[in-house]
Amino acid sequence: MTWWDTGDDEDEPEFDESDVRVRPNRRGSRPRTKVRPEHADAVEGTVLGVDRGRYAVLVDEGGRDEREITAARASELRRKSVVTGDRVDLVGDTSGEPGTLARIVRIGERTTLLRRSADDTDEVERVIVANADQMLIVVAAADPEPRIRLVDRYLVAAFDAGIQPLLCITKTDLADPTEFLRNFAGLDLPVYLSSADRMPLDEITRDLIGHRTVFVGHSGVGKSTLVNALVPGADRAIGRVNVVTGRGRHTSSSTVSLRVVDDGGTGWVIDTPGVRSFGLGHVDPASILGAFTDLAVIAERCPRGCTHLPDSPDCAIIEAVEAGELGEAGRARLDSLQRLLATFR
């Protein structure tokens, strides 16, 4: 007699296979496959903005059938992020009629990618915009006071992304920006000066046409005011500076693309929320030197591991500047390079 045999067969219940409960397969009986549909009928579009999981996408830009549609990200994209400026492929209802929803199934190759991190120790990047080719940095001459270090960080991010930076100084009727601008004398940086009496709209518009320009700036510097003047009907919310803290209030809460039009053609303004910090934990310092093409050529003579900072021994760039090889502008360009590189220390 085995240990489970009671010896009383009459009292033992009888079982057969039909009494066994089989847990249903909730995933269904069809085997999974890694083969994805090709979506040969997909249409192309450009993401204009993102709002709570919904994407505003422009299809057939500049064509006879140009339309803006609403789309969601397809499940096959998994964790791939879709950001303003992305060129995407869409399927489903792409008519753009009210109440319709298309699906984004592919993200095109990105030519540029503007990123930032939470701080300099955080290597997790946060994508701001894709495929922009210019960055307009908006700074106030006063109220709030201009922050050189923040502008430096914008410049580093632009150089790292391969984006051409531009600089607009607002509120010049409140303070003279000359001293502030000396910090950037060594850079090939177009500068626009704006005041309450005169905004350089014609000059800025001319340089926006044919480009996708991302606008960045500290809260309260007048970025939204500038955007509204450049793009009538944009209706971007305008904030005020706190008289106690000297800080601006966040008004633009999302990144959005706005079309700029004049006789020379069209361009795009990509307005972003104001920020008070701009982490560079994801940036490779070598990409900063690459933005100074004349200095990068000389740097090839530097010893391995040269930081190009003032305390760097045998730096070929420093020696060339001291020898006058780069003329009067050499010192200013070296100062700008060293200040940007110092942001990583």
Overview in brief:
The protein is an alpha/beta fold. The chain has eight helices and 13 strands.
Instruction: Quote the CATH topology of the largest domain.
Output: Rossmann fold
Instruction: Estimate percent helicity.
Output: 10-25%
Mean pLDDT: 84
Largest sheet, in brief, is: 6 strands, mixed
How large is the share of residues in beta strands? 15-25%
Return the CATH architecture of the largest domain: 3-Layer(aba) Sandwich
Low-confidence stretches: 239-252
Reading side by side through the largest sheet, how are the strands ordered? 10-9-8-11-13-12
Quickly count the helices.
8
Structure characteristics:
six-stranded mixed β-sheet; 8 helices; Rossmann fold; OB fold (Dihydrolipoamide Acetyltransferase, E2P); globular; 345 residues; 13 strands; 19% helix; alpha/beta; 3 domains
Provide a descriptive summary of the structure in words.
- The protein has 3 domains: 65 residues, Beta Barrel (OB fold (Dihydrolipoamide Acetyltransferase, E2P)); 159 residues, Rossmann fold; 59 residues, no CATH class.
- The relative contact order is 0.11.
- It is an alpha/beta fold and 345 residues long.
- 19% of the residues lie in helices and 23% in strands.
- It starts with 42 loop residues before the first strand and ends with a helix.
- It is globular, with a radius of gyration of 28 Å.
- A 6-stranded mixed β-sheet has the order 10-9-8-11-13-12. A 5-stranded mixed β-barrel has the order 1-2-3-5-4.
- The protein contains 8 helices and 13 strands.
